[in-house]
């Protein structure tokens, strides 16, 4: 029943076109929700004591790290030195800690946390202030059932390997887990050559004696190395909403197929901590605060309260936690071809060959002098020497392409299995 | 011969009860087939008597014959007038007054004399009253023809001095009833208006009354009512073609000053001129340009009224609650502006009829569907399309209205080449349908159904859906002239759903819903013009499904889990008395008694006393069976408002309000988000309550061209919900472990300057207010900022907004909207610390810092279609630019740890000028 006259119809059509153009720009604006850097002006900086300590049921020299909070513009924390640190068991037995390096305190004797006993951390700083933690118990130990790998395509359409932890919490309770890992990969320098050149005596502009360079055999140790790194993000999970207290397929890590780590052989050691709720909540808060916010939720920030208080001044904030957790470990190894498929993108080392040639304005001696500087500088790895119409050409590659020790250690670690 | 004179006189005579003794002189006359007028002329020529009458009265009487010899004049008249409806009466010595219908009493009840004493004084009265007759004369001469209506049959048996005149006012063309018609008696606005059924009722002195009927957009009608007895007079008014705006102003003059409770009325029609984001007309957004009502920023839902949290507003659409009237993160409101009739916001002096929220009531009603012909309205904006259709069902009795709005953003997103947007999607729609049926003059039924739905996904593996539903059925009934009643049955639901399908086996579907059903009886009793009552009872039943999660697909190992359903009954009885103590002083005293019963089936934890609530301090859990009362809360809520007129256009008003709120949103966000959940009070979570004191001055200048108001308020709240840092609010079985309940305090002063007439019109509002909260406890984990009062998340001390419109011609107008607000408080990181090899931030005290101030200028240009009378429809264009200055107003400031480094980031929604164009078509 809507009667539209001709003019209106023409108008509709015009509008339609205009709308299309506008909508496009609108939607882009809405969805990008411009996020920009923001400079906050801050005043009255106060530094607080930061405590980082995890003690477990593993028999070892346990560690406590003490530092202070620091300003944004500062590079890193000031370590808290010369403090008296101890862990008190059942209010009577004391395990003393000594400072082995600035801010790092290590238990004098090896010990392990025992289930059913209460533990407390006590700190007395050099300025005479004392801090005490709440009394903590050891949560039940839950072993890792399996660490598995799977080739997946992630949300960003990237092919890679998912490293997944499977745990079976037989106790049937809700469990709170934190993970740390240590990953090691084997790396082969792609441009390792059998020979290297060394500077020997005077410059001799004679191709037959290699222009005065010594040709030496390159060490096999520079060909294959083992590189180790540690997790530095907070990896936590809980079984609150899952059946049987089971953790199946907790995605611990995702490595893209073209990552250097998947070039040859890879190993990961997964450490699983079973935490209590409070400790878990502390890590959860740390994690939420460090992550970028989702589109419509924003965590109410605030001071993250741990389980350590100042005995001297109740209002003095103390950052950090005294974590008492049970620990289990699991290590796996795999080769690239074990998980990934043949056509998957591989690691491409940026190994561009750098050629040094005599220029028109210099003499051969000048040129060789230039090459010597490069060789002595040891920032590039020698690749080859060519003669082009009697003019020498020295080829180099970036150091890491010819020398794996640039990244790691050539000796396989003790745990390594081929 | 001026008959006007005699009407007055007759009235006077009647009311004052003059008893005249007449001695008639004798006359002789004869006539054959004569008309009455010439008979009277004959008498006049023979005697000194003069007749007073209206020619038209006599026209009908012709063919009279008679022959009298020395007969007394009275005798002759008696004979002559025997067959007519004309009465006669002698006044003084030589005047004979003829009257139509009326009997001129010559015998009156004795009580009259008791009242007025002897005859002498009566004569005096009579003389006195004669004087004004001449002024009346003048007035009448200007206005030519005032129709005279005679009402009722005069009887000698009644002694009433006042009679009741009632009637229904309808539109002469459409036959639709007209409410809000102002009735002016003898030139005075006596404050009577026709009610929603178009019905009016007056008590008038018997005799002549000049009654004016004034309605917005209708022709002014004046009738001379000759009242002989109780009776009714129905009138039809014609629509006024021109100068609609000015009628509004004249009729509503000084209303703002005279009302006892100050409600903020949003002019739905006018809202189309105010430029808003993406050209969407938005009534609720207009509300935020008024003092005391703010939002946290663009892209944030919810309103903060006088320092209250955004869950403290009762938003009603035709008596049904709407939980989240927002689309698209609050950029659009989910209420179709086309279907809205009235929008009233109460932020102080909340009438006792409303309850259940602390800060304000947004009372929205849909307009009635037209019952005469098919009508419609269409608008096309850059993001949405909007349609309204009205159709009669039963001619002049029942009509149906359907309004729908949808966004085509999703369609556009799917057609974009932009890779980053491929995975995003957003679409929404809302529908309102209404049926209204005037069954009898006294009975009317209205049924409204509302639904809104939003779908959006930010990544390809998640889909968020949220829905509102509101249904209401209302029956208005008029028992008699003094008593009216309303029965309203409503049901509301809000639910959201999240679907996640990820790579690993944790795909799930999660849902939440709240459902409430209310039955409300609301009666009005007009004892008299000075004393009115409003009373009723209401009860609502809540069912909350706080959360469920279930696996998707066979691979998923997410176990189905749901938190127990919650039930409660919230009931209230209310009584409001509106009393005019003196002409200047009016009071509205209301009392509401609310009772909240948290009901089983449920399991509730009992915590050890004197320690913070946590999993470890549960000493007992109690199971309650179905419908067993877990806990009862409630109490009286006093609502008092008073108004004292300091002048005709100047008043002072004060109000006190106590309010309870039994349901709470669980949100640790600053702004409302679609996945906020509502929680009912239970054994461990207490209801919130608030007390507000307000005082205001209201003054109009220049015949209400300018309205100025200055209001101040002070509010204390208890048990305001907050959370421990990092609390998990979704799917948390033991939410009471995470909740902190604290005190709130807010105060402020609000200035509003409005100009209503002229080419330049609009308003300017300034608010200075503070909103503070205190979370104190003997335990450090439950204490925030050392237990002192600190600014709440929406504490914005300075708030200025101005809406200015300039009308070039009837067709072209320019409008602008200016906003300035103090930046809201935030918690900033004050330093870093290193933990497990990564850097993290240490935060300041809660809300110690503020984000940069907010300001924005929007400009719109409106083009009305031609005002030709005979055209198919009416079109309206709006071209607007939102945020002309391109101010990058931060919505939020947040900090992330990236590559072990802390970075401050701010997000904003519309950081560039946003042009848009909207086309409206009405037929």
Outline the structure in words:
The complex is a heterodimer of chains A (418) and B (923). Chain A has 418 residues and is of the alpha+beta class. Chain A has helices spanning 6-32, 277-290, 336-339, 364-377, 399-402; strands at residues 35-37, 49-56, 63-68, 84-89, 93-101, 104-107, 119-124, 130-133, 144-153, 159-168, 176-188, 195-199, 213-217, 224-230, 235-238, 246-256, 265-275, 308-310, 318-335, 354-357, 380-388, 391-398. In chain A, strands 2, 3, 4, 5, 6, 7, 8, 11, 14, 15, 17, 18 and 19 form a 13-stranded mixed sheet that branches. Chain A is elongated, with a radius of gyration of 30 Å. Mean pLDDT of chain A is 80; it is low at 1-33 and 292-298. Chain B is mainly beta and 923 residues long. Chain B contains eleven helices and 57 strands. Chain B has a 22-stranded antiparallel beta barrel. Chain B has a five-stranded mixed sheet with strand order 6-12-11-8-9, covered by helices on one side. In chain B, a hairpin with a 2-residue loop joins β55 (892-898) and β56 (901-907). In chain B, α1 (3-16) runs antiparallel to α6.
Continuous helix count of chain B: 11
Q: Determine the fraction of residues in helical runs of chain B and give it as a percent range.
A: 10-25%
Number of strands of chain B: 57
* Helical proportion of chain A, percent range: 10-25%
- Overall geometry of chain A comes to elongated
**What is the alpha-carbon Rg of chain B in Å?**
34 Å
Query: Uncertain regions of chain B: pLDDT < 50 for 5+ in a row?
Result: 6-23, 107-144, 242-251
User: What is the arithmetic mean of pLDDT of chain A?
Assistant: 80
What distance lies between the first and last C-alpha atoms of chain B, to the nearest angstrom?
A: 52 Å
Low-confidence stretches of chain A: 1-33, 292-298
Mean pLDDT of chain B: 79
């Amino acid at each position: 029943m809507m009667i539209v006259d001709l003019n209106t119809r023409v108008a509709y059509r015009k509008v339609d076109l205009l709308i299309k153009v506008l909508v496009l720009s609108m939607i882009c604006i809405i969805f990008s929700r411009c996020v920009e850097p923001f400079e906050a002006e801050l005043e009255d900086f106060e530094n607080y004591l930061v405590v980082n300590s995890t003690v477990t049921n593993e028999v070892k020299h346990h560690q406590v790290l003490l530092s202070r909070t620091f300003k944004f513009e500062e590079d890193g924390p000031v370590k808290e030195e010369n403090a008296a640190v101890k862990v008190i068991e059942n209010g009577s037995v004391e395990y003393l800690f000594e400072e082995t390096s600035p801010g790092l305190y290590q238990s004098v004797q090896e010990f392990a946390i025992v289930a059913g006993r209460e533990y407390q951390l006590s700190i007395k700083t050099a300025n005479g202030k004392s801090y005490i933690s709440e009394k903590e118990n050891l949560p039940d130990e839950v072993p890792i059932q399996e660490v598995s790998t799977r080739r997946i395509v992630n949300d960003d359409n990237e092919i890679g390997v998912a490293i997944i932890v499977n745990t079976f919490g037989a106790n049937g309770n809700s469990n709170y887990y934190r993970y740390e890992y240590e990953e090691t990969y084997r790396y082969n320098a792609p441009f390792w050559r059998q020979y290297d050149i060394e500077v020997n005596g005077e410059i001799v502009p004679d191709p037959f004696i290699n222009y005065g360079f010594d040709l030496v055999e390159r060490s096999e140790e520079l060909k294959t190395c083992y590189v180790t790194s540690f997790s530095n993000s907070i990896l936590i999970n809980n079984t609150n909403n899952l059946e049987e207290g089971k953790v199946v397929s907790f995605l611990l890590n995702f490595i893209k197929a073209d990552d250097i780590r998947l070039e040859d052989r890879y190993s990961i050691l997964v450490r699983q901590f079973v935490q209590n709720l409070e400790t878990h909540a502390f890590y959860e808060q740390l994690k939420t605060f460090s992550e970028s916010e989702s589109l419509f939720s924003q965590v109410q920030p605030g001071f993250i309260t741990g389980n350590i208080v100042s005995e001297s001044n109740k209002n003095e904030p103390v950052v950090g936690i005294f974590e008492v957790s049970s620990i289990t470990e699991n290590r796996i190894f795999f080769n690239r071809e074990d998980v990934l498929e043949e056509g998957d993108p591989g690691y491409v080392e940026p190994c561009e060959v750098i050629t040094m040639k005599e220029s028109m304005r210099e003499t051969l001696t000048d040129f060789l002098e230039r090459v010597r500087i490069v060789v002595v500088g040891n920032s590039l790895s020698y690749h080859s020497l060519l003669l082009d119409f009697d003019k020498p050409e020295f080829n180099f590659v970036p150091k890491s392409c010819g020398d794996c020790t640039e990244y790691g250690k050539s000796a396989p670690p003790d745990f390594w299995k081929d | 011969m001026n008959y006007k004179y005699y009407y007055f006189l007759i009235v006077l005579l009647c009311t004052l009860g003059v008893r005249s003794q007449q001695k008639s002189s004798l006359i002789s006359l004869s006539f054959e087939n004569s008309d009455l007028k010439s008979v009277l002329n004959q008498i006049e020529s023979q005697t000194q008597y003069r007749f007073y009458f209206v020619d038209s009265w006599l026209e009908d009487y012709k063919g009279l014959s008679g022959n009298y010899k020395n007969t007394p004049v009275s005798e002759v008249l008696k004979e002559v007038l025997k067959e007519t409806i004309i009465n006669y009466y002698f006044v003084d010595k030589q005047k004979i007054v003829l009257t139509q219908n009326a009997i001129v009493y010559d015998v009156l009840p004795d009580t009259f004399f008791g009242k007025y004493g002897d005859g002498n004084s009566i004569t005096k009265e009579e003389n006195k009253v004669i004087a004004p007759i001449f002024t009346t004369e003048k007035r009448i001469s200007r206005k030519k023809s005032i129709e005279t209506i005679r009402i009722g049959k005069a009887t000698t048996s009644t002694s009433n001095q006042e009679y009741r005149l009632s009637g229904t006012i309808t539109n002469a063309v459409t036959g639709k009833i007209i409410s809000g018609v102002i009735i002016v008696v003898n030139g005075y606005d006596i404050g009577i208006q026709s009610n929603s059924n178009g019905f009016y009722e007056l008590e008038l002195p018997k005799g002549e009354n000049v009654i004016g009927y004034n309605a917005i957009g209708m022709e002014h009608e004046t009738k001379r009512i000759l009242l002989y007895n109780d009776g009714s007079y129905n009138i039809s008014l014609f629509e006024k073609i021109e100068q609609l705006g000015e009628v509004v102003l004249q009729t509503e003059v000084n209303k703002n000053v005279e009302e006892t409770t100050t409600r903020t009325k949003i002019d739905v029609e006018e809202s189309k001129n105010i430029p808003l984001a993406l050209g969407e007309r938005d009534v609720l957004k207009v509300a935020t340009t008024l003092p005391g009502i703010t939002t946290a920023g663009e892209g944030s839902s919810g309103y903060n009224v006088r320092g209250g949290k955004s869950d403290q507003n009762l938003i009603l659409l035709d008596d049904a609650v709407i939980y989240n009237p927002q689309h698209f993160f609050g950029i659009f409101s989910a209420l179709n502006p086309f279907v809205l009739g009235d929008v009233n916001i109460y932020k102080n002096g909340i009438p006792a009829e409303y309850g259940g929220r602390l800060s304000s009531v947004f009372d929205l009603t849909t307009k009635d569907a037209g019952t005469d012909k098919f009508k419609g309205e269409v608008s096309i904006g850059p993001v949405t399309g909007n349609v309204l259709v009205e159709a009669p069902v039963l001619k002049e009795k029942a009509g149906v209205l359907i309004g729908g709005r949808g966004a085509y953003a999703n369609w556009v997103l799917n057609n974009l080449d932009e890779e980053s947007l491929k995975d995003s999607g957003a679409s929404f729609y809302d529908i309102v349908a209404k049926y209204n049926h005037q069954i009898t003059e006294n009975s009317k039924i209205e049924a409204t159904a509302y639904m809104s739905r939003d779908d959006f996904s930010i990544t390809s593996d998640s889909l968020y859906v949220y829905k509102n539903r509101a249904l209401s059925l209302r029956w208005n009934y008029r028992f008699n002239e003094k008593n009216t009643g309303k029965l309203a049955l409503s049901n509301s639901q809000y639910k959201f759903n999240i679907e996640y399908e990820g790579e690993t086996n944790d795909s799930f579907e999660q849902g939440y819903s709240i459902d409430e059903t209310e039955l409300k009886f609301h009666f009005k009793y007009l004892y008299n013009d000075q004393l009115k009552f409003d009373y009723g009872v209401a009860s609502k039943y809540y069912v909350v499904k706080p959360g469920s999660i279930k696996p998707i697909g066979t691979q998923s190992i997410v176990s189905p889990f749901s938190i127990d359903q919650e039930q409660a009954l919230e009931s209230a009885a209310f009584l409001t008395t509106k009393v005019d103590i003196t002409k200047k002083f009016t009071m509205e005293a209301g009392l509401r008694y609310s009772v909240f019963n948290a009901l089983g089936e449920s399991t509730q934890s009992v915590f050890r006393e004197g320690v913070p609530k946590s999993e470890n301090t549960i000493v007992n859990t109690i199971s309650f069976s179905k419908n067993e009362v877990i806990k009862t809360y409630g109490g009286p809520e006093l609502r008092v408002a008073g108004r004292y007129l300091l002048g005709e256009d100047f008043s002072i008003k004060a109000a006190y309000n106590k309010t309870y709120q039994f349901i709470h949103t669980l949100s640790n966000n600053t702004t409302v988000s679609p996945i906020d959940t509502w929680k009912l009070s239970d054994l461990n979570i207490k209801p919130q309550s608030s007390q507000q004191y307000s005082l205001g001055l209201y003054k109009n200048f220049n015949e209400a061209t300018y309205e100025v108001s200055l209001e101040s308020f002070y509010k204390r709240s208890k048990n305001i919900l907050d959370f421990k840092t990092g609390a998990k609010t979704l799917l948390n079985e033991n939410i009471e472990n995470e909740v902190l309940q604290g005190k709130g305090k807010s105060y402020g002063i609000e200035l509003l300057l409005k100009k209503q007439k002229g080419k330049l019109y609009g308003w300017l509002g300034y608010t200075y207010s503070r909103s503070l909260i205190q979370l104190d406890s003997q335990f450090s984990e439950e204490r925030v900022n050392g237990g002192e009062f600190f600014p709440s998340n929406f504490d914005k001390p300075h708030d200025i907004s101005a809406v200015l419109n300039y009308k070039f011609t009837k067709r072209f107008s320019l409008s602008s909207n200016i906003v300035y607000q103090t930046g809201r408080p935030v918690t900033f990181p004050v330093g870093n610390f290193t933990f497990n090899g990564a850097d993290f931030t240490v935060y300041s005290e809660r809300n110690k810092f503020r984000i940069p101030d907010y300001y924005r200028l929007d400009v719109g240009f409106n083009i009305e279609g031609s005002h030709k009378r005979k055209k198919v429809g009416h079109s309206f264009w709006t071209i607007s630019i939102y945020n002309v200055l391109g101010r990058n107003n931060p919505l939020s400031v947040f900090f992330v740890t990236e590559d072990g480094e802390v970075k401050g980031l701010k997000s904003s929604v519309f950081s560039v000028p946003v042009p848009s164009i909207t086309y409206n078509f009405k037929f």
